[in-house]
Every structure is written in C-alpha cells, then in structure tokens.
C-alpha cells in the first residue's frame, strides 16, 4: 500500500503564516526522505489557520528542495480560473520538475462567498461550467483540440517532456463520474465526507472501464490521521484540531489552538456532540492502531494508495506522526 501526504499548511496559534509555510517545506522534505509517494498542498482563501492560497508557488519552492516525491496541488480550484492559465502554470512546473508533478482539480470555493467574489466574480457560474472546463484543460495539456478549433494553435508553453498527471478530487458520485469520463485519476476525500466512499470509488472504476477499454484508472482516498507513541498522547494532540473546528464554525478566527488551550476550554453539550461526530472521521492512536485502521480502510475502499492529512498545533508532533506511520509500514 502506498502512503502519501496532503498538507493544508495549518497556522498554529502563536505562530505566523511564514512559520506554517516553512513547516510545510519541512514536512515535504521528510516525506521525500521517508519514501512517501506524493506530497500535495491545498488551496484555501481567507481562511484563518490555513496559509496556502497559491499551491503552484509552494510546489516550485518545495520542488527545488526535494528529490523524488511527487508534488501536486490538492487541489487547484478550477471554477476560479481559466483552464489555459492552469495548463501554462503546471506545464512550467512540470518542466522544472520532470515526471514529478500532479495537477489535482477541485470545485470547492476554498473560502467565504466574499472571498470567492473577490477572486473570480461569479463562482457558481464556474461550477456550472466545470465539466467543460475540465475537458478544455485536458485538451490544452495534451494538445488535443480538433484542428478546426480556435485553440488548436494555442500552446501552453513551456511543454514538459512528461505532462502533469491530472487528478479530480471530490466527495461525490458526480466528481467520480467526471473523472471516469475524462480518463483522469480520482481522489476521494474520505476525511471530509460521510458518504459511501467505497460505492463512489466503485462507480469511478466501473465508469472508467466502460469509457476506456476495461482499464480501471488510478485512485486514492484521503484520510485524517494523528499518530503518537501512545493512544493518550495522540488523543491529546487531536484535541487541538477539534477545538479549532468548533471555533471556526462559530466564526472565531484563530490558528490551531494548543493542547493546553483545548484541555482548559469549557465545552458545551453541543461541542461534545460535535467532537464525537468529528471522531468518526479521523484515525487517532498509537502506531499499531493507526496502521490497523489504515489497512482496514484500504480493504474497504479497494485502493492502492492512502493520502494522510494531519493537523496539529505543534509542528514536531505532525512530523513525528508521519514518521511513526512510515516506520510502522516499513517493518
């Protein structure tokens, strides 16, 4: 089973965005050293606690300081942008980092309604146009417009030796079928969905096979996990993330709280119920417990790769979590 990393570049309370982005670099370098398959960084806008608004810039920065790990966006939010500009950007990154670049595409707004308007105007129109935009993006990347098309003479330069691998990210059957129809890889966001992910991935594989001569396509699931030497330590570390989400849902702008902040916070009954709900979608435990849970998900979802997202207050706790998981699987 392959293991990969999804990084949302969290900003811890008491730290700066610069600290968070440096921590992202250190995480990617560790993933490179440990043999993780991919490192993807997300795109968010005007969200307190998350630092990466331009994954393409971070990928270039990180790519210059790593050697083997595949680098990608998880995801570029296509409704905000013109396909040609994305193709240009990722062709350039793919030229700089040959055969190491993934282009993940998503359709979420990535921030508030006001941020979406500031970024691209009519975001909902971009969502409606998503199927067409995906096709156009692929045609630019693969230089496959019909000869009579006005864009057939337009090339998103520079053209890399190997095109970026395109992934569609989602949590619904609609996104899975869009990926299957267009022959792209598919990443299911298990960590932010309560839907039947195994059924959705099955639909993707069946749709891909129907459209592409029996092939099944490339797929992975993204899960939230926190690993520590002991279960108690892991649960303490995870408490920061739970409090951050509770505060964010209330519109309180803050970085990732410390473990002490989480320990001393006065939770309401509704908060406790919310935390119990969040615990259903995160793996927290010691190395053996985390490995067992990941292997179970791998069996349930029938994928060859699991991508792990880990949010902690202490950046060293995050590095250790990925280190412990890697060590457990390498035994």
TrEMBL record:
InterPro entries: Bact_Lucif_Oxidored, CmoO-like, Luciferase-like_dom, Luciferase-like_sf. It comes from Cytobacillus purgationiresistens. NCBIfam families: oxido_grp_1 (TIGR03558). SUPFAM superfamilies: Bacterial luciferase-like. Residues 1-297 form the Luciferase-like domain. To bacterial alkanal monooxygenase alpha and beta chains. This is Luciferase family oxidoreductase group 1. Pfam families: Bac_luciferase.
């Amino acid at each position: 089973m392959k293991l990969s990393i999804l990084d949302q570049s969290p900003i811890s309370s008491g730290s700066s965005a610069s600290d968070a982005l440096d921590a992202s670099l250190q995480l990617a370098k560790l993933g490179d050293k440990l043999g993780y398959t991919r490192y993807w960084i997300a795109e968010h806008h005007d969200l307190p606690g998350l630092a990466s608004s331009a994954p393409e810039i971070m990928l270039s920065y990180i790519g210059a300081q790593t050697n083997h790990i595949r680098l990608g966006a998880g995801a570029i939010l296509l409704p905000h942008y013109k396909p040609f500009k994305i193709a240009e950007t990722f062709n350039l990154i793919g030229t700089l980092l040959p055969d190491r670049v993934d282009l993940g595409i998503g359709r979420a707004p990535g921030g508030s309604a006001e941020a979406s308007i500031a970024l691209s105007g009519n975001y909902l129109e971009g969502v409606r146009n998503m199927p067409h935009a995906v096709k156009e993006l692929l045609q630019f990347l693969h230089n496959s417009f019909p000869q009579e098309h006005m864009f057939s003479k337009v090339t998103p330069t520079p053209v890399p030796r190997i095109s970026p691998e395109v992934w569609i990210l989602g949590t619904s059957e609609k996104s899975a079928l869009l990926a299957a129809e267009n022959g792209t890889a598919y990443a299911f966001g298990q960590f932010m969905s309560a839907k039947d992910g195994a059924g959705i991935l099955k639909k993707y594989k069946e749709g891909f096979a129907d459209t592409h001569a029996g092939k099944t396509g490339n797929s992975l699931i993204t899960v939230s996990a926190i690993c520590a030497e002991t279960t108690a330590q892991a649960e303490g570390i995870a408490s920061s993330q739970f409090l951050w989400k509770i505060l964010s849902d209330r519109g309180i702008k803050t970085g990732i709280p410390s473990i002490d902040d989480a320990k001393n916070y006065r939770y309401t009954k509704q908060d406790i119920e919310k935390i119990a709900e969040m615990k259903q979608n995160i793996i927290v435990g010691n190395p053996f417990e985390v490995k067992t849970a990941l292997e179970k998900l791998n069996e349930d979802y029938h994928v060859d790769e699991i991508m792990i997202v880990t949010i902690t207050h202490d950046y060293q706790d995050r590095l250790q979590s990925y280190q412990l998981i890697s060590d457990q699987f390498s035994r």
